[in-house]
Amino acid sequence: xxxxxxxxxxxxxxxxxxxxxxxxxxxxxxxxxxxxxxxxxxxxxxxxxxxxxxxxxxxxxxxxxxxxxxxxxxxxxxxxxxxxxxxxxxxxxxxxxxxxxxxxxxxxxxxxxxxxxxxxxxxxxxxxxxxxxxxxxxxxxxxxxxxxxxxxxxxxxxxxxxxxxxxxxxxxxxxxxxxxxxxxxxxxxxxxxxxxxxxxxxxxxxxxxxxxxxxxxxxxxxxxxxxxxxxxxxxxxxxxxxxxxxxxxx
Length: 250
Prior knowledge:
Blueprint (H helix, E strand, L loop, with lengths): L6 H9 L4 H13 L1 H20 L2 H17 L5 E2 L2 E2 L30 E7 L5 E3 L4 E3 L5 E9 L3 E8 L4 E5 L6 E2 L3 E6 L10 E10 L5 H14 L15 E9 L1
Parallel strand pairs: 5-12
Antiparallel strand pairs: 1-2, 3-4, 3-6, 6-10, 7-8, 7-9, 7-11, 11-12
Helix pairs in contact: 1-3, 2-3
């Protein structure tokens, strides 16, 4: 293998997703190619930083707390005063994480705002890139974080293949107020998603609070315009930043 490996190939090598001749060729290349070996080392360091920031024990504690709270108040589970849609699922293990065929619909206008979705619990913890279709492993849980940048409010919601809308994080019936900041912060508790098929997760950052009912209408409108196909959904047309991820469930 004379050309350098792509970062995606190195990521798959590190994750154990390459097999047979592909794995042997990739390992032989990394062993003799300094730039590709450096990429692998950087990925190892990235993983170490991730696990230090959000250790597995915190994922487990978050889910246990959320599930216990849901059993106490199944009609409206709450964690630390925030509305949380808690769900459970058995997820399919696969070896390849495919990318979306359509263009990413995430809209970031700048100002330092961003959002993170991280997965842990069933295997090595990892960060999900916006625009990916992420296939979850059995028992894995999601954790959402954000950098508010100049914005004062954050809201997290999701919709599944059947058009069922869920509020993941809010304060009562609207966005959660936050302090503008360049610091990454994590929303409380971790989540598992029930059912089969796919789930589109959305984090919305805004200057003014967004009402959940208005966001629900925008999400379901986008879902209907896409013919009920989550990968084909477009932006919601909401003032502020939109960050979307697509999770695949069995």
